[in-house]
């Protein structure tokens, strides 16, 4: 396929607007999915169970993704389409992008390999926050955007309203909207001519030396690292030796081809095409997204780099049973081969033992990783409450990044602390406007803008501390707007903040994993709450226990538990020795399920509960 017969495009949408269903439909329409994986009869069957549908959606590969119905890892697939107008075959490369705000980075890197995008909008819900965010990402990447209104089969579909929104918000002509139902297949055939005619072919020179853009990679258990590459100029063949422009490392091309939908070897890939290359790398860390590949002895100018994945949320992850440390470590190492956006370093806690401090793109990403650890690697872990990274300027002028509350310096050592900020865009039906403004203000937000949108809706723009957003902001937003408001955010640098470390002491000994970095206005409340919660879960001990929450030497809250001699055998009247032994054994067993925190023992269950509730 010469470049003028190739189209590279992606599908962008707000979550649940039907991106996955549409992708699957495009593949099955062009015969790219084998019939036994995705039966062609599902239309006539009408409504199927949601889960059943999900399972069949080929593009969502990982188990977690399937359960949550989100695409985490971008998947890419090529298909062949015969255009009615000129009778020619076209190679259409669909580059799948994740649909959640945590994964904006993956969206932007996938878009670099495209010339066009289908912007899918739900005919009932209309334009939402991520519709806008993704549209602007696509625009910034210079893509031709084709508006697609989906779910027109639904009785509540309001196509005219959505057309109007698309016109008002982005300036699309109503006639340019493609109307489809990804579910029933209605209108699907109209998508292909729109892609062929409106998306420009890739530019690039087949005669120039090979230049490839690495835009995605993953780890395959059998084949090692697989990279997805967009050939910008020239061509690359099996057996070629290619060089990474960023590391100058050389790799032999062990295998290459197109995704159709699984890897299909082709021997070579050509200008404008998107394909996979197996370069014999050891880890996905070597496959730097945004890197340029060229042929050995034919260096080319590297493309301007991508922004690297940025971890915004950190948490300590510990094995529930400290004996499982080694197996958790191995699980992490394997997991990181498949997801290079997680960061991990060793950490030790006096309460939890050996574990890891991990960085995630966002809270959903953290959830996905925890779930994968459990489902794919059988690891049962304790996660400390998540925190954002703080920038601390010390009185000696040095700067320190702190992503573990336990490492936060004492107040007298700190000149000032800065916290990460975001700009949040919230789209909501106008009736929830007031409640949302209040929520943002309560979350230390500053309003930057508000706009009235078509269809009794408003868009609010707020500057917010990231730490507020990663706690329960999103849940609250959904709750007060009955699920209608949507949020999208981008990173907005650091800003000075009046935060302090609130530490927890048990009989004056600090329990590091319970420390938290908290804004001054919340410190009192946080301190009181955690002390109360702890009191509830600590069993009476042989000695009195003082529970305190403090900033530096200032105690914010305290509770105490009086001493009790816990003599289980006291219940045994008489001298039945076997009964007595049994009880003692039982007590020993119970001990195993206890966590030692400082001088105090806690039941495992209580401790897990405490960690979950923060
Ligand atoms: P994604 O999050 O954008 O990938 O959305 P999905 O493709 O997973 O779709 C979200 C939900 O909408 C699923 O329950 C789909 O079955 C449903 N859906 C998708 N397209 C249509 C459509 O055209 N009509 C109807 N009625 N439902 C659809």
Secondary-structure class: alpha+beta
Overall geometric form: globular
Which regions have little confidence, pLDDT < 50, spanning 5+ residues?
Answer: 35-56, 68-74, 568-575
Beta content comes to 25-35%
Mean residue pLDDT: 82
Compounds present?
Answer: guanosine-5'-diphosphate
**In which range does the helix fraction lie?**
25-40%
The largest sheet is: 8 strands, antiparallel
Separate helix tally: 15
Gap between N and C termini: 56 Å
Oligomer: single chain
The strand line-up of the biggest sheet is 11-10-16-7-8-15-12-13
Task: Please characterize this protein's 3D structure.
- This protein has 614 residues and is an alpha+beta fold.
- 28% of the residues lie in helices and 33% in strands.
- The protein contains 15 helices and 33 strands.
- The strands form 7 sheets. The protein has an 8-stranded antiparallel β-sheet with strand order 11-10-16-7-8-15-12-13.
- Helix 9 packs across helix 10 and helix 11 (433-442) packs antiparallel against helix 12 (466-480).
- It is globular, with a radius of gyration of 28 Å.
- Guanosine-5'-diphosphate is lined by residues 13, 15-21, 50, 53, 69, 99, 150-151, 153-154, 181-183.
Please give a quick description of this structure.
The chain has 614 residues and is α+β, with helices and mostly antiparallel strands. The chain contains 15 helices and 33 strands.
Keywords:
614 residues; alpha+beta; six-stranded mixed beta sheet; 28% helix; globular; binds guanosine-5'-diphosphate; mitochondrial ribosome binding; EFG_V-like; nucleotide-binding
């Amino acid at each position: 396929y010469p470049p003028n017969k190739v189209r590279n495009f992606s599908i962008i949408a707000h979550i649940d607007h039907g991106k996955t269903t549409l992708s699957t439909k495009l593949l099955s329409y062009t015969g790219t999915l084998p019939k036994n994986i995705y039966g062609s009869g599902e239309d006539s069957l009408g409504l199927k169970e949601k889960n059943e549908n999900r399972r069949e959606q080929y593009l969502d590969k990982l188990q977690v993704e399937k359960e949550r119905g989100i695409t985490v890892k971008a998947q890419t697939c090529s298909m062949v389409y015969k255009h009615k107008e000129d009778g020619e075959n076209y190679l259409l490369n669909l580059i799948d992008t994740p649909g959640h705000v945590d994964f904006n980075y993956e969206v932007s890197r996938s878009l670099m390999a495209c010339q066009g995008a289908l912007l899918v909008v739900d005919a009932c819900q209309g334009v939402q926050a991520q519709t806008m965010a993704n549209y602007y990402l696509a625009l910034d990447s210079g893509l031709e955007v084709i508006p697609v209104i989906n779910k027109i089969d639904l009785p509540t579909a309001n196509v005219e309203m959505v057309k109007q929104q698309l016109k008002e918000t982005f300036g699309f002509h109503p006639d340019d909207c493609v109307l489809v139902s990804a579910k029933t297949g209605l209108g699907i055939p109209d998508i292909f001519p729109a892609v062929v005619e409106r998306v420009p072919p890739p530019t690039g020179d087949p005669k120039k030396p090979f230049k490839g853009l690495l835009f995605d990679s993953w780890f395959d258990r059998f084949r090692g690292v697989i990279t997805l590459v967009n050939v910008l100029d020239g061509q690359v063949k099996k057996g070629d030796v290619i060089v990474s422009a960023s590391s100058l490392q050389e790799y032999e091309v062990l295998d290459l081809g197109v995704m159709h939908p699984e890897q299909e070897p082709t021997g070579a890939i050509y200008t404008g095409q998107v394909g996979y290359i197996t370069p014999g790398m050891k880890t996905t860390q070597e496959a730097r997204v945004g890197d340029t590949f060229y042929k050995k002895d034919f260096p080319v100018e590297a493309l301007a780099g991508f922004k690297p994945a940025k971890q915004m949320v950190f948490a300590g992850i510990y094995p529930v049973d400290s004996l499982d440390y080694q197996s958790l470590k191995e699980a992490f190492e394997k997991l990181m081969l498949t997801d290079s956006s997680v960061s991990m370093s060793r950490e030790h806690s006096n309460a939890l033992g050996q574990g890891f401090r991990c960085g995630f793109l966002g809270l959903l990403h953290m959830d996905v990783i925890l779930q994968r650890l459990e489902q794919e690697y059988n690891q049962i872990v304790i996660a400390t409450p998540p925190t954002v990274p703080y920038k601390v300027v010390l009185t000696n002028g040095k700067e320190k990044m702190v992503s573990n509350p336990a490492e936060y310096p004492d107040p007298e050592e700190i000149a000032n602390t800065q916290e990460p900020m975001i700009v949040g865009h919230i789209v909501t039906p106008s009736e929830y406007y007031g409640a949302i403004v209040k929520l943002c203000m309560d979350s230390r937000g500053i309003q930057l803008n508000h706009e009235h949108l078509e269809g009794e809706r408003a868009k609010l723009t707020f500057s917010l501390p990231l730490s507020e957003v990663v706690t329960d902001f999103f849940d609250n937003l959904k709750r007060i707007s009955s699920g209608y408001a949507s949020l999208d955010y981008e990173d907005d640098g650091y800003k000075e903040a009046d935060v302090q470390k609130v530490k927890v002491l048990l009989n004056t000994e600090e329990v590091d994993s319970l420390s938290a970095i908290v804004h001054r206005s919340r410190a009192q409340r946080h301190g009181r709450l955690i002390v109360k919660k702890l009191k509830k879960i600590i069993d009476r001990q042989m000695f009195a226990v003082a529970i305190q929450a403090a900033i530096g030497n200032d105690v914010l809250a305290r509770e105490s538990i009086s001493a009790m001699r816990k003599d289980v055998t006291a219940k045994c009247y008489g001298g039945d020795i076997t009964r007595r032994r049994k009880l003692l054994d039982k007590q020993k067993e119970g001990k195993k399920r206890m966590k030692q925190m400082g001088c105090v023992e806690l039941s495992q269950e209580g401790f897990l509960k405490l960690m979950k509730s923060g």
